[in-house]
Amino acid sequence: MKFLLMAGALMFSVIASADHHGGMKHSMIESNDIVDVAIANGSFTTLVTAVKAAGLVDTLKGEGPFTVFAPTDAAFAKVPTAALNALLADKAALAGVLTYHVVAGKVMASDVVTLTQATTVQGQNVMIEVRDGKVYIDNAQVVMTDVAASNGVIHVIDTVIMPKT
């Protein structure tokens, strides 16, 4: 259940939109904080909902800097509905999952690939691994990097990661 909302650290500083080839492009809008970027993006509605439910909006709008490993709505869709609903109903558990997706400081992709782990705001470490030229955070693949926000950076991941119990 806790695996749901890596969202806590998530609201990306990128505004992603489909280009005319069906791919993704992003523009960095540094005047917007992590929460504003996530809301404007449109691909993080579940994350934004979770951040609101956990009472973390003010924190993620704070000075930071923060590095957020943010799961998309597609990542949240992998979580069973009952587990997601239970997590959203448990504010403390939700906050734990979301803050597990956030690292204090601004860690750019060029720095992430040199690390084997990072301590999250939740207190536990996420494992970082490069396999076949791709970066993984606790087995979630990083699919977009260095999305700038006024108070940090967002790295988009394809799976919700869960703290160890």
Kindly state the number of beta strands: 9
Approximate shape:
globular
What is the chain-wise order of helices and strands? EEHHHEHHHEHEEEEE
Average pLDDT level: 83
Spatial strand sequence of the major β-sheet: 4-3-9-8-7-6-5
Largest sheet: 7 strands, mixed
Give the number of helices. 7
CATH topology name: FAS1 domain
End-to-end C-alpha gap = 11 Å
Q: What structural category arises from helix and sheet content?
A: alpha+beta
Fraction of helical residues: 25-40%
How many discrete structural domains?
A: 1
CATH superfamily: FAS1 domain
What is the compact description of this entry?
This protein has seven helices and nine strands; from the N terminus they run E-E-H-H-H-E-H-H-H-E-H-E-E-E-E-E. It is of the alpha+beta class and 165 residues long.
